[in-house]
Amino acid sequence: xxxxxxxxxxxxxxxxxxLSACSSxxxxxxxxxxxxxxxxxxxxxxxxxxxxxxxxxxxxxxxxNGVRGFCRYVDDDPITMEVDVDFAFxxxxxxxxxxxxxxYWVAVTRRDQAVIAKQYFTMDVxxxxxxxxxxxxxxxDGIVIPRASETVSGRNFEVIVGFDLSDEQLxxxxxxxxxxxxxxxx
Length: 186
What we know:
Layout: E1 36-39, E2 45-49, E3 58-72, E4 79-91, E5 99-110, E6 115-126, E7 133-145, E8 157-163, H1 167-175
Parallel strand pairs: 1-8
Antiparallel strand pairs: 2-3, 3-4, 4-7, 5-6, 5-8
């Protein structure tokens, strides 16, 4: 799925930051490092819980367990990037049914500054009979980050992932309460 960047203007240039090969889509090395890729901490988990907030009242859950970014750019080309996101989904005691559609987003930002683009995705997760945990890896490709000149490196950008949360879920995450289901290794 491709990102679009409406009204993107020139980006402040930095000196070349050495050679780096975050990924090798071709033999020439990148002209700089890849953008940082990661999950926004406060949006990296989703917990559906009824009151009172106890383990017995947990419905469906989700966690972003890892984000890996791979990029390519040479000369004055834009940065082309793909991101792999590792998810773990849980089915707690109050979960209704054996399937859930989870919403999440991927954003490209100027590092520690403004969001350049943000796109929303959904993922349908089916829990096999008796399964409390399902793990999935999603690949988001087609992320294209424009550069004002060949001296602008990936170090100027971040690709951030998070769950699409309600205000209540975001408040819950910020509270620091944790419910962890017993899980076996994959």
